Amino acid sequence: MSTESSTARAYRRIATEEAYAPQELIDEYLRLLKTDNVEIGFRSLMGYFLQSSHPQPQQVVSRLADLGERRIADMDAAGIDHQILSLTSPGTQVLSVDAARDFARLANDRIAEAVRAHPTRYSGLAAVGFEDAPSAVEELERAVTTLGLKGLIANSHIKGTYLDAPQYLPILQAAADLDVPVYLHPQTLPDAAISPYVEAGLDGAVWGFAAETGLHLLRMITSGLFDRVPNLRVVVGHLGEGLPYFLSRIDHMHQKQVASGRYEAIKPLQQKPSEYLRTHIWLTTSGMPWEPAITFARSVLGNDRVMYAMDYPYQYELDEVAQMDALSYSEQERYEFFQGIAERVFKLPRL
Question: CB-hemisphere CA count at 13 Å for 292?
């Protein structure tokens, strides 16, 4: 385990996908679990974390709402200098329109308060209630310009709809105009797709998250969203949710689909689908501290497209940072991986 002070090395270790939830939101999730009107995935995921007697989910939940001494002690123990905080999945995206707006504002205020209290240890991303685009734009502008938050967290689909849908364009345009990235984070699959995953016990982080969020990111690309909003920047965790491995096939099949006119949704793009991952999208290593996968992602997308994340508290492993420090990188590459890319993408202050 590597816990030496950041002054003893030439870089800060910045973890870029680190979850938080106000206790009030946890309580609201518990209330929703007592009702019948919740998605299958929400009941599977939050039912496990909030109602299981197993120590692993209990430890996760006990850490989620803490933005003080315990979280900082955990960071110190693991060798993390700075966390970029964001509202945990599924965030606001399972709530009513009014509740989503109110809980987004609460979470943003709490994260901003923590950043003010610990400016060298925390930065934060803003949450919004996506179903009410005007209020979402207003809240994102407040969170960025007044609270100083550094991006927008989107916990993937919004009740089965995706960010390529026209109703979300004003929110994404606002993020682009504010020059902050959108962090596309997983949640469980929507009811229309989840049954085979739940049946096999594969609906969560083991595979369902990647299937759902990889689909979401690919929809954003193939819909032409990045052509319509050319200054939109997106960050996605878990080394791109499997897409980097499929880029050659995606490009090949997309070209054939455009030529054949098979699908109304598939139109010509200004670039190959794979090229958007090199021009508009950055990856983090959250939950994927595995050298072969990191090396592959860097090789196909570029070293400047892959940065570090831990996925705290869901995947809090004390030896992970030591494993990442041991990657066969030059000192400059290690600086970029842990610090430089994150500072540029999220426009973090140099501390």
Answer: 1
